[in-house]
């Protein structure tokens, strides 16, 4: 509530200051063109105009948020504030590279970039929220789909525009914005793929087996594309301008994610390779001695894998459960009795 009041106060004050700046220009110069010229050269007038444009952008952003996202959760607002501070700091570092080309055009493009980054962050968090809480209404799904589509179109448009500027005018700050919108496009495509996979899984009642594998490989492809973009931009800027320190942290984070995916893949292969040894096939007599219902799929078992504790599961059900878990760090070393408890608890 306090944030909403502050927002409308800021917008109203920005409008009043702009009106005062316009009246001030006409106070000193009666004729329109002289007043306009005075307005455009006055630092106070330009400052109030820029502030009013920023307030308009906030109004547009607020309208799009209410139309396509509804109210933001407290966690989304918190992460939004944190990421905005990080982006502004990184942009100040980038400005040191393009300080000779710094001007109104750079500030306008930076404002546009920050505007779209904010919606990319919210869209990503909202896709993660849908994955955690699948009981969304069809209206919410349609709105999120429209947002993802609009962001993809905008990313492609600004990327093409920046590349054309670089092709026509040579090296300039448009290289930075082409890189930034390229990174946004990669992240946006991954969010769209993830949302598609989550939607398919929801339509299958949360039991769509290929989802985990597709999600895993889409994350790897996304990180590889981002790393290629970082390396290309780093090399180009270092050769033409200076060392781009503002992307070193992002490069490191991307490399660490790829290393983590590689470790997860090795552990996954280890689990799959030892599955027949750790979970031997149950005999028909062992199946008849226990309840034939698989605790995972609730269907009758004609073929089963046996844990050392004596409990039985469908082979595909046990394999599917292993694939779905984000527990590769320690699941390899768990005893079968503990593993059984985890399986049962996750399907209660």
Automatic annotation (TrEMBL):
<keyword id="KW-0479">Metal-binding</keyword>
<feature type="transmembrane region" description="Helical">
    <location>
        <begin position="224"/>
        <end position="248"/>
    </location>
</feature>
<dbReference type="InterPro" id="IPR013083">
    <property type="entry name" value="Znf_RING/FYVE/PHD"/>
</dbReference>
<dbReference type="GO" id="GO:0061630">
    <property type="term" value="F:ubiquitin protein ligase activity"/>
</dbReference>
<dbReference type="InterPro" id="IPR057992">
    <property type="entry name" value="TPR_SYVN1_N"/>
</dbReference>
<dbReference type="GO" id="GO:0043161">
    <property type="term" value="P:proteasome-mediated ubiquitin-dependent protein catabolic process"/>
</dbReference>
<dbReference type="InterPro" id="IPR001841">
    <property type="entry name" value="Znf_RING"/>
</dbReference>
<keyword id="KW-0808">Transferase</keyword>
<feature type="transmembrane region" description="Helical">
    <location>
        <begin position="7"/>
        <end position="27"/>
    </location>
</feature>
<keyword id="KW-0472">Membrane</keyword>
<dbReference type="GO" id="GO:0036503">
    <property type="term" value="P:ERAD pathway"/>
</dbReference>
<dbReference type="GO" id="GO:0005789">
    <property type="term" value="C:endoplasmic reticulum membrane"/>
</dbReference>
<feature type="domain" description="E3 ubiquitin-protein ligase synoviolin-like TPR repeats">
    <location>
        <begin position="7"/>
        <end position="272"/>
    </location>
</feature>
<keyword id="KW-0812">Transmembrane</keyword>
<dbReference type="Pfam" id="PF13639">
    <property type="entry name" value="zf-RING_2"/>
</dbReference>
<feature type="domain" description="RING-type">
    <location>
        <begin position="293"/>
        <end position="325"/>
    </location>
</feature>
<dbReference type="InterPro" id="IPR050731">
    <property type="entry name" value="HRD1_E3_ubiq-ligases"/>
</dbReference>
<feature type="transmembrane region" description="Helical">
    <location>
        <begin position="173"/>
        <end position="193"/>
    </location>
</feature>
<feature type="transmembrane region" description="Helical">
    <location>
        <begin position="47"/>
        <end position="69"/>
    </location>
</feature>
<keyword id="KW-1133">Transmembrane helix</keyword>
<keyword id="KW-0862">Zinc</keyword>
<dbReference type="GO" id="GO:0008270">
    <property type="term" value="F:zinc ion binding"/>
</dbReference>
<keyword id="KW-0863">Zinc-finger</keyword>
<feature type="transmembrane region" description="Helical">
    <location>
        <begin position="142"/>
        <end position="161"/>
    </location>
</feature>
<comment type="pathway">
    <text>Protein modification; protein ubiquitination.</text>
</comment>
<feature type="transmembrane region" description="Helical">
    <location>
        <begin position="102"/>
        <end position="122"/>
    </location>
</feature>
<dbReference type="Pfam" id="PF25563">
    <property type="entry name" value="TPR_SYVN1_N"/>
</dbReference>
<protein>
    <submittedName>
        <fullName>Zinc finger protein (ISS) putative isoform 2</fullName>
    </submittedName>
</protein>
């Amino acid at each position: 509530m306090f944030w909403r009041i502050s927002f409308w106060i800021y917008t109203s004050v920005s409008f009043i200051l702009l009106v005062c700046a316009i009246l001030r220009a006409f106070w000193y110069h009666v004729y329109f063109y002289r007043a306009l010229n005075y307005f455009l050269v006055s630092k106070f007038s330009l400052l109030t105009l820029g502030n009013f444009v920023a307030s308009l952008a906030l109004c547009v952003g607020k309208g799009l948020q209410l139309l396509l996202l509804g109210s933001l959760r407290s966690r989304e607002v918190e992460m939004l504030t944190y990421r905005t501070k990080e982006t502004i700091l990184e942009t100040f570092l980038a400005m040191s590279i393009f300080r000779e080309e710094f001007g109104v055009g750079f500030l306008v493009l930076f404002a546009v970039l920050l505007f779209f980054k904010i919606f990319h962050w919210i869209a990503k968090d909202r896709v993660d929220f849908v994955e955690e809480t699948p009981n969304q209404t069809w209206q919410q799904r349609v709105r999120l789909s429209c947002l993802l589509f609009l962001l993809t179109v905008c990313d492609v448009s600004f990327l093409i525009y920046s590349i054309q500027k670089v092709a026509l005018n040579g090296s300039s700050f448009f290289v930075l914005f082409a890189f930034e919108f390229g990174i946004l496009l990669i992240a946006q495509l991954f969010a769209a793929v993830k949302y598609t996979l989550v939607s398919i899984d929801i339509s299958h009642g949360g039991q769509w087996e290929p989802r985990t594998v597709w999600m895993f490989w889409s994350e790897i492809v996304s990180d590889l594309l981002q790393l290629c973009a970082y390396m290309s931009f780093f090399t180009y800027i270092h050769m033409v301008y200076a060392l781009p320190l503002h992307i070193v942290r992002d490069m490191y984070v991307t490399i660490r994610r790829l290393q983590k995916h590689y470790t997860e893949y090795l552990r996954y292969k280890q689990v799959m390779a030892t599955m027949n040894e750790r979970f031997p096939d149950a005999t028909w007599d062992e199946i008849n001695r226990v309840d034939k219902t698989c605790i995972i799929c609730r269907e009758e078992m004609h073929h089963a894998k046996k844990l050392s504790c004596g409990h039985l599961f469908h082979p595909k059900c046990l394999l599917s459960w292993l694939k779905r878990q984000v527990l590769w760090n320690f699941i390899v070393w768990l005893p079968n009795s503990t593993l059984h408890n985890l399986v049962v608890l996750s399907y209660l």
